[in-house]
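Hi C.,

You asked whether I'd gotten around to modeling the 387-residue construct. I have! Everything is below, sequence then structure, no commentary in between.
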Amino acid sequence: MNVHVLRDSKFSQDIYDEVIKLLQEFNNPLNFIPATDEIHNVLWNSMLEIERKKTRIFLENEFKKKENYNPEGIMESNDSRGYEKINFPIEREVASPHDILKSCYNFRTENDIGDEDFVILLTEQANNLNWFSFGDENNNAFIHTSDWGYYLGCNSAYPITYEVISNIYYMILFEGMSDINIHTHKIPEGCINDFCEQKKDIKLKMRTADICSVCQDVMIERSFPMSIATQMFGIMEYLRKNLLSLERFYTIRGASRVEFRGYTRKMFLTDLDDIEIRLTPLEKTVYHLFINHPKGIMANCIKDVEQELRDLYGIFFNGNNLANFENSINNLCDYLNPSMQEKVSSIKRKIIDAVGSNMAKYYIIEKDNNDNRYKIKLDRELVDFIE
């Protein structure tokens, strides 16, 4: 039985690759098939054709409690955006779950995918219900990929992989929303069938990697395929062990060493399986600026280090348009321009996605309230440059 795992162009290629690697460690009877690069662009174009540009105002209480919704679908809720403190109310671009799932249907049509195969989209696209996963009765599902690292303090590949498995479980076992509402646990108890009204509650499911006796009885009663159940248990247990081992590492080891390799200074966390944090040229420029200033920089003093920014961007800039180069530097140095804050936020998001919020605190650029300077906390003794 094939499971086609797709991604939209906004979802990190690195995290996607890691999800695929985790799933493929346990291929058969579910066979996990990654999308090709060509399919990614088609998917994102189709996303633009649907009504993505609708926006919605979210209030704080909506990020804590699920909304009433009763379409024919299988869903779990998303309690918050995550990466940074949120000032409510907020406005976000959203699409309906059914519109997002059109990408799965398009993929089925264009690639002649059989009805028995699963098609699961990993997407950064927010949905207007504020859910973090949704599956329908035609073996299509999507996982909203944002915020996991922030809430769970781990590599977001782990909970996303878990969500892939749990959505397959739901689509095999249940027959729609009314059916799943009867059997889900509204109060978390460490079972795959916990409703997880708040995203952080999935950590309990992952730590236990369990299916309670009541839900096991339902699986037996409905003849859930034993071979798939065995495969699911294997994946869940693997994720559980890795999550616990990472938590012990964070407690005992502390920060990983960082290596910047080659002329373009690719960033690797050597004690965390040599994870690469892939930054754009401008993000590298900003990050190395703060690496060079362990005591930090005041937000309104970026203009004072303009020449240093120019020198750094000269290393990483891969274009030939001088006007674009100048415009990028001017935007970074302009206190009223959001460019610098955008780069800081983007870097933060990539690091949290890769290592989780617990470990990310050593590497992100953030404001120190003691002196109001933005800085990277990492001990520079742990930083090395490899030519």
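If it helps when you're writing up: The longest helix spans residues 226-252.

Thanks,
B.
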